[in-house]
Amino acid sequence: MRLLDHLFALVSLAGLVAMGWWGVYQSPQNAANLQMELQQKTTAALKAAGHDWAIVTMDGQHAILSGKAPTTEAVRDAALTILTADGQGGLIFGGVTQVESVADDAPPVSPFVWHAEKTPEGALVLSGHVPSRTIRKALLAEAQAVSAGAPVEDRMQLASGAPVGNWQGIARLGLHQLASLDSGDVTLEDTRLRVNGVASDKAVREAVTTEVTNIAAPFQGQPLVRGASLWLARVSDDGLLLKGNVSSESERREILTLAKKHYQGKLVDEMVIADQVYGGWMEGVRRGLPQFVHFQSGEMDFDPDGAGFLILGQASPSTLAYLKQDVASLTAPYTAEIRAVSRLPAPPEVVPAATPVEACQGMVDAAVATGDISFAEGAAEPLRTSGPALDVLAASVAACDPALGFSINGRAEAENPKPADVALGRARADALVAFLEATGVDAGRLSAIGYGPTAAEQAIDSADAGADSRPIEITVLERSE
């Protein structure tokens, strides 16, 4: 019996050793395997919950949350998602026991923009920034309630920087107004609500206009609701679309010829010939289309029941300025209303400088040197071929320290009589000052000086020999308080 007892003891000891080895190295509940499993589960849970910003690192059952958090609420939601990624968890059940946040706050978004679009098919697309997951969920539910069963797509993102006041209420109001339109979009940019769309019912147009105009401060409403377009041109990433009715084949050919002359991208023609005559409407196309096709995006609509042409979208400052000049002389019954937003290009890249003045001067010099800011002989206004260079110059000025000023030095050609040289040089400088002011530069930062050809060579200290022949020179100044 003693030998048998010893044998059983040895077998039991071997079993205990095997169970111990399995528990330490093979069991799902050992420390290494548990940490790996929790890492996978918490990462998957964050992704499923839409916390793309969040990074989780497991230290045993202790979770460390990091990343650029869009809002404080987002940190709380992400922490709760991690804590419940493996059920109730805890020490006994092997889940996350604690979440430590070392997440940084992402900088506030400015401008804070939320957007909703209703397609001609009735679908709603929500995008842009929202201040919390709770508001995001509420707006999505609101959209589904007013969509009459049409699809609702959510592209919204959490961000900080929403203005004070009833932001959610204004966004919901915008959704309700959008739902009553045939198609259109709503943009809430900081405290400004813009409602743009089409409604064939005049009563709907009037009701939406009244509601949006009368929203409470500090918010402001900008309604732009029109009837169905008879003809339109649309610029987008897909190219230029020409759509709607024209009265004859000759009108169609003229519009196509005009578009091909001024637009270099893909052109889609969906125009049809209809039994209709609107005398004088083609003059608006002739004056507006050549500059409109240079928009970054937008629509040019013709509504014979309204004032005529409505032009919306985004364009460079020079394109907008030339378009306004071209359509200014249109008269009733068909005039043109421009509701477009100016968008600057990127400023030129320059070598880093030691001081704000040097950095600014480098950008301004690069804009002037690489562009073509030129004038017809004896003319004060820059040639329209100078538009791209003027836009880059405006972008350079906008990128400079707001405390800096600019001396705009203009001069005339040597062929002009000397008494007229200084006056023409000053007129050219004034024209450039006016352009920069129109892009949003404070007039107090700008001054204009005119030179004759000889005086300019003496007064302008240029870094390169070719600068003496330029009609415009710009000097960056430190402004005294």
Automatic annotation (TrEMBL):
Keywords: Membrane. PROSITE patterns: OMPA_2. Residues 362-480 form the OmpA-like domain. GO terms for cellular component: membrane. The keyword Oxidoreductase does not apply. This is OmpA-like domain-containing protein. It comes from the Bacteria.
